[in-house]
Specification:
About 30% of the residues lie in helices and about 25% in strands. The protein has 12 helices and 18 strands. The strands form 2 sheets. Strands 1, 11, 12, 13, 14, 15, 16, 17 and 18 form a 9-stranded mixed β-sheet that branches. The structure holds pyridoxal-5'-phosphate.
Length: about 400
């Protein structure tokens, strides 16, 4: 788990200035993670695509872009916002999953490369863009991930084209005169041990051999960050060495030496650059459990209720005095019992108006916010390289909640 990148005093300043709940990001951390990914394989033709669904704040996208990283889009909306950030069309890769023809056309009209996720979608693509360039997402038959909901390959998911359909892929490519320029996969999210990823890579490279002259082979994302204090970081040096060996081996007998390798990290790029600040509204005992009531409902951070995810929580006390540790359960303000940010945690005594910092909230944090209970989605603030703070998204207002009603 990363340390908080700002002091307690600064946290209270930000809380005063912008209110809570509040997402706070650190430009320096974000740039470090971008550089680590970009430099993962110095001896190979590697491009990094940031999987922007993890966090598509416009300002953060601009920073990622300035680090010479490209971007993956999952929807026309993501394409739209990525273009606003300044990504040129050739730097966007649209990885559609069960999309309509008009969504494919949205990309095709802009010259954005599309990856299709099934034979059915490949055929649809062929019908609306005969002769076009396309990529196909394969499912190598192995998956990985921190929760079954985020394992995105293997025998129990909706994703990708299974390996033994290679023949049908070839037939459709021929029938619609398509040019298959890349293949991709994404086996799942959040691995801290590279073994399973390497197995997936090896299997994708096997599939790649079935297709001559590919321009790229895309291994997907899933690079994990340690959410718990006692977890080790992903060993990038080891990962790099193993990937390099796999690619070198593949290149020995592939017909296009210049083939580009791609990876698609989402979480790894942004998770540790963000914290979520909330304030304690109430403290109570309910049948033996001490509940810390905050403004951090699951409309603000959905990962715990969705995936039982663990986020480290740090207490920032107004008094500056950190007392004895005790066991508490930290909950939000949403009208559901599952609205729990952190269960049975040992933390210094917390009182009303103390501030809590939920660590590693940069990925799948704001991106999954909602207006459930007609709550306002929080503001986002960036701590810039020069130390200044900058509002990069306003908090919702009541007008935002009302916006699309007709009457
Ligand atoms: C979500 C996703 C990623 C990124 O996953 P992380 O675990 O955040 O790295 C990469 N590729 C695809 C296709 C995805 O859907």
């Amino acid at each position: 788990m990363g340390d908080i990148f700002i002091s307690d005093e600064r946290i209270f300043e930000l809380v005063e200035k912008y209110g809570t709940p509040l997402y706070v990001y650190d430009e320096d951390t974000l740039r470090i993670r971008c550089k680590e990914m970009r430099n993962l394989l110095p001896n190979k033709n590697l491009r990094v695509n940031y999987s922007a669904k993890a966090n598509s704040n416009l300002e953060l996208l601009k920073i990622v872009m300035s680090e010479d990283i490209d971007v993956d889009a999952m929807s026309p909306g993501e394409i739209y916002i990525q273009q606003k950030a300044g990504f040129t069309n050739e730097r966007i890769f649209y990885i559609g999953n069960n999309v309509w023809a008009d969504e494919i056309m949205y990309a095709v009209e802009r010259g954005i490369l599309v990856s299709v996720d099934s034979l059915s979608q490949l055929e649809l693509f062929g019908k609306i863009n005969r002769g076009g360039q396309v990529a196909v997402r394969f499912n190598p038959g192995v998956g990985a991930g921190h929760h079954e909901k985020v394992v995105t390959a293997g025998k129990k998911t909706k994703f990708g084209v299974q390996k033994n359909f290679v023949g049908q892929v070839k037939e459709l490519i021929k029938e619609y005169d398509l040019k298959l320029i890349g293949i991709n996969q994404h086996i799942g999210s959040l691995f801290l041990d590279e073994d399973q990823y390497i197995v997936g890579v090896r299997m994708l490279l096997e599939i790649a051999k079935e297709f001559k002259g590919l321009k790229f082979i895309d291994m997907g994302g899933g690079f994990g960050v340690p959410y718990k204090k006692d977890e080790n970081r992903l060993d990038l040096a080891k990962l790099s060495e193993k990937l390099d060996a796999e690619f070198a081996n593949f290149l020995k007998d592939y017909d296009n030496e210049g083939v580009m390798f791609k990876i698609e990290p989402g979480r790894y790029i942004v998770a540790e650059s963000g914290i979520l600040l909330g304030e304690v509204c109430s403290v109570k005992y309910n049948y033996g459990v001490k509940y810390i009531g905050t403004d951090l409902g699951f409309n603000v951070l959905a990962r715990p209720i969705l995936y039982d995810s663990y986020h480290e929580v740090q207490v920032v006390k107004r008094s500056g005095n950190y007392g004895e540790n005790e066991e508490v359960t930290i909950v939000g303000n949403i009208c559901e019992s599952g609205d729990i940010i952190a269960k049975d945690r040992i933390l210094p005594e917390i009182i009303e108006r103390d501030v809590l910092a939920v660590m590693n909230s940069g990925a799948y944090g704001f991106a999954m916010c909602s207006n459930y209970n007609c709550r306002l989605r929080p503001a986002e603030v960036l701590i810039c390289h020069n130390g200044e703070d900058k509002l990069i998204r306003k908090r919702d207002t009541f007008e935002d909640i009302e916006r699309n009603f007709i009457c």
